Every structure is written in structure tokens, then in C-alpha cells.
């Protein structure tokens, strides 16, 4: 056992990816190795073993490097795959959104097209009647806008006298201007006596009475026509609504457009010489199996190549037709004018009937208003009689509230600040001031009202006591 050699223990490969490190020999193992003698053959074997170890370690290192590179490549591939999947998802979502938008747009376009078709059909609605517009009221409105009325206002006595005296003063003072003459007439009018003014004043009063009567009549007529117009508007509005609903239902059923109606009595426009020629040639060309598009080309070329003698019969025919058309048109226009005049007469008669109806309506309205007024007056009289019976002059009156006390003073100040103010605006301003009052000012007015109420209560007690005393005395006397 002189040349025994300790065999090298092969390194174990672990389950992990990294190669296990070679174990460093412990002290005991080292001693054992040193203690054993080494033979020459064993020395040679020992030299071969480390060379193999080096080769194996190099292979392991290269293999580990390749593994690491592959792992890195796989990780990069995974990351790229994830990115591409995310991008594909985003693109799919964008495509879906675009498809939805396109579908929505298509639906909206279809809806718009259907609505437009409905509107086009509704444009064709032609009612058999229109809302009544009374001509007299329109004319009066136009006259009011222009600033002129049917009858002029009567001129006062001074102007009537001035018209008579103007020429005399102008003859006496030919160089005088308008202003100078007017001042002279004004000074002279002051010296005119009452007897001289009487005839002019009489003319003025007579004209004024006539003017007022005309205005009253006009106002009465306008009120009556307004009533009638309101009634007619209500009737026609209901009839138009019914017609429109019927037309709408028919338009929804029928998709076709209605053509414009032409007047069948209106004479047709005559054909020219060229068209008369084409009508003659059309039958012959149709017999030759010519296309309808080729016919006008052929006829136009033939018409250009024709002489004046060949064209003359067609031109004479066209001239006769034109003269006949002119005569027929004159007769048609005369007929239309007669119809228009007849229609105007009917309208005037209808206006007269409308005025009569309007006046009757106004009379009915006035009767009802008079009845309401009489009933109100009778009720007020009854109330006054009751109050007169129950009222006692010695009974103390209730005091005013804080708002009424405030409004009395506020009215005085507002009337002084704004002279000629209307009652409605005055009341509105007083109520606004009362709302804008501070709490201190309002407490002041409330305090005054409460003081007045306390005084009223005391007076009431004394009044009731006196009533009771008089009642007792009357019972004793009885």
C-alpha cells in the first residue's frame, strides 16, 4: 500500500443554473493526502486530472453564458410581445369606436333625411283658408302711423278768425314776414270783443261736436271689429289645425310630391315654325327606326339647310297661331278681371256683414257689462244701507296700521319730489320703500301703530260702558 493515491471526488452539479464551486479540502483531508505516499504512476494520473477539470470548467462557463444570453433574449421577447399586445388592444378599441361613430353618423343622416322629407312634404301644405285680417283696421293702423286721421280736428276760434284777417293785414303790410304778421294778429285778437268772437266760437263748437261723434263712431266700430276678428281667428285656427293634421297624415302615407295645379282655362303658348316642322318630320323619322335622341339632331340640320321658301309655310302657320293665342289671352285676361271685380264686390259685401255682426257682438257685450255694473251698484247700495243702520257716529274708529302710517308720509314726500306722478307708480314706489326699510325704522312705525291701538282699546272700553249704561236707563224707564 506504499503507492496509494486518494481518488479525486467529482464535483456534483446542483439543480440550479449556476455551477457549484469546488470544495476546499479541510485540514483532516489535507493531512490524509499528505500522509499517503505517492507512486510515480499516480503522479502521472494526477497531472491528467487537473487538465480535464479545466476543460470542464471552461465548458460550464460557456454554457452558463449562453443560458444567460438566452434568458435575456426571452425576457426581451416577452416584453416586446406584451407591448405589441397592448398596442393591438388600443388599435382594436379605436377601430371599434370609429365603427360605432360611423354607425351613429349613418343613423343620424338617415333621421335627418327622413325629417327633411317630412319638411318638404309639409311645405306643400296649402290651406283652403287664411287667418282673417280686417282691412279697415289695417288702413286705420297705417293712418295712425303716418299721423293722419279720416277727419281733421276742428280748428279753434282764433285760427278761424286769423284766416279771415290774414289777407287784410298782408295787404296793409306787404313787406311783413310770417312771424311779424302772426304777432300783429295775436295782439289784435286780444282787443277783439266777445260779441265778435261768438260766430267763430259757434263754428268751432259745431265742428267739434261733429268731430267727436265721428271719433266715437270709429272707436265703436274698431272695438266691434276687434271682437269679431278674435272670434274669427279662433274659428279659423281650429279649422286650419284640423286641415294640417289631415294633410300630415296623408303626407306620411304618400311619399310622392304633389305637382302644382295649372289653370286649365289658360290658353297654351303657340309653337314656333321650327317645332311645327319637327312635328311633321317626326313620324317619317320614326318609320325609319331613328332613335328619339337622333331625331332633334337630324331635324336641326335639315332646318338649317332649308331655304326660305321651304320654311315659309311653317312660319305662316306659326304667325297665325300666335295671333290666335293673343286673342285668346285677351279674352282670358278680361274674364280674370271680371272675376277679380266680382270677388272685390263680394268682399265689400262680406265686410258690411262683418261690421253688422261686430256691432251686434258689441251691443251684447255692452248689455252684459251694464248688467254687471247695475248688480255691483245694487250690492254697494245694500251694503251702504246696512252700514248706515249699524253705524254709530260716536263709535271710535280703528287706527291705521304701521304700513298705512308710513305710506301717508311717503306719499307726501314723493308727490313733492315728483309732481304729476300717477297713482299706480306712486303705490309701487311706496311699497318698494316699505320693503327697503331698516328694522329700526320699521320698529318706529310699529311702535306708533301699537300706541294708536292701545288708545283705541281704551276708547272702545269707555264706549261699551256708555252703551251699557244707556241700555240700563232705557230698561228702567220702560
UniProtKB/TrEMBL annotation:
Gene3D superfamilies xrefs: High mobility group box domain
Record feature DNA-binding region, as residue ranges: 151-219, 267-333, 396-464
Keyword Protein transport: no
UniProt-annotated stretches for the region Disordered: 1-63, 127-156, 247-270, 364-409
Ranges in coiled-coil conformation: 446-473
InterPro entries per the UniProt record, alphabetical: HMG_box_dom (IPR009071), HMG_box_dom_sf (IPR036910), HMGB6/HMGB13 (IPR044601)
UniProt xrefs under PROSITE patterns: HMG_BOX_2
SUPFAM superfamilies from the UniProt entry: HMG-box
Record's protein name: HMG box domain-containing protein
Amino acid at each position: 500500500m506504499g503507492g496509494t493515491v486518494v481518488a479525486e471526488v467529482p464535483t456534483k452539479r446542483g439543480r440550479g443554473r449556476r455551477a457549484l464551486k469546488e470544495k476546499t479540502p479541510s485540514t483532516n483531508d489535507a493531512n490524509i493526502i499528505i500522509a499517503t505516499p505517492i507512486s510515480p504512476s499516480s503522479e502521472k494520473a494526477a497531472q491528467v486530472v487537473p487538465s480535464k477539470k479545466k476543460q470542464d470548467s471552461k465548458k460550464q462557463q460557456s454554457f452558463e453564458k449562453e443560458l444567460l444570453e438566452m434568458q435575456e433574449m426571452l425576457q426581451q421577447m416577452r416584453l416586446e410581445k406584451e407591448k405589441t399586445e397592448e398596442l393591438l388592444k388600443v388599435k382594436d378599441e379605436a377601430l371599434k369606436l370609429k365603427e360605432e361613430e360611423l354607425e351613429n353618423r349613418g343613423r343620424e343622416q338617415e333621421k335627418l333625411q327622413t325629417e327633411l322629407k317630412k319638411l318638404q312634404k309639409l311645405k306643400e301644405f296649402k290651406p283652403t283658408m287664411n287667418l282673417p285680417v280686417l282691412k279697415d283696421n289695417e288702413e286705420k293702423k297705417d293712418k295712425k302711423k303716418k299721423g293722419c286721421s279720416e277727419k281733421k280736428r276742428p280748428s279753434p276760434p282764433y285760427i278761424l278768425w286769423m284766416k279771415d284777417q290774414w289777407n287784410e293785414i298782408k295787404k296793409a303790410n306787404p313787406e311783413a314776414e310770417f312771424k311779424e304778421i302772426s304777432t300783429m294778429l295775436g295782439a289784435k285778437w286780444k282787443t277783439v270783443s266777445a260779441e265778435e268772437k261768438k260766430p267763430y266760437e259757434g263754428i268751432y263748437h259745431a265742428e267739434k261736436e261733429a268731430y267727436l261723434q265721428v271719433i266715437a263712431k270709429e272707436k265703436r266700430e274698431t272695438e266691434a271689429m276687434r271682437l269679431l276678428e278674435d272670434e274669427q281667428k279662433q274659428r279659423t285656427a281650429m279649422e286650419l289645425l284640423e286641415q294640417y293634421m289631415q294633410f300630415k297624415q296623408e303626407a306620411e302615407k304618400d311619399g310622392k310630391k304633389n305637382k302644382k295645379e295649372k289653370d286649365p282655362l289658360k290658353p297654351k303658348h303657340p309653337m314656333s315654325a321650327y317645332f311645327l316642322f319637327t312635328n311633321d318630320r317626326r313620324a317619317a323619322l320614326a318609320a325609319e327606326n331613328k332613335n328619339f335622341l337622333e331625331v332633334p339632331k337630324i331635324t336641326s340640320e335639315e332646318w338649317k339647310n332649308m331655304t326660305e321658301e321651304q320654311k315659309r309655310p311653317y312660319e305662316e302657320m306659326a304667325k297665325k297661331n300666335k295671333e290666335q293665342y293673343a286673342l285668346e289671352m285677351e279674352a282670358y285676361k278680361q274674364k280674370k278681371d271680371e272675376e277679380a271685380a266680382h270677388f272685390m264686390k263680394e268682399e265689400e259685401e262680406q265686410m258690411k256683414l262683418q261690421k253688422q255682426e261686430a256691432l251686434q257682438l258689441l251691443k251684447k257685450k255692452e248689455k252684459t257689462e251694464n248688467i254687471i255694473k247695475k248688480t255691483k251698484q245694487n250690492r254697494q247700495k245694500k251694503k251702504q244701507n246696512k252700514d248706515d243702520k249699524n253705524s254709530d257716529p260716536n263709535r271710535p274708529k280703528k287706527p291705521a296700521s304701521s304700513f298705512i302710517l308710513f305710506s301717508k308720509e311717503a306719499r307726501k314726500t314723493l308727490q313733492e319730489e315728483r309732481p304729476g306722478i300717477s297713482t299706480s307708480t306712486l303705490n309701487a314706489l311706496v311699497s318698494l320703500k316699505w320693503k327697503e326699510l331698516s328694522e329700526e325704522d320699521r320698529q318706529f312705525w310699529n311702535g306708533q301703530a301699537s300706541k294708536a291701538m292701545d288708545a283705541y282699546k281704551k276708547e272702545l272700553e269707555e264706549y261699551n260702558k256708555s252703551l251699557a249704561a244707556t241700555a240700563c236707563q232705557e230698561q228702567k224707564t220702560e
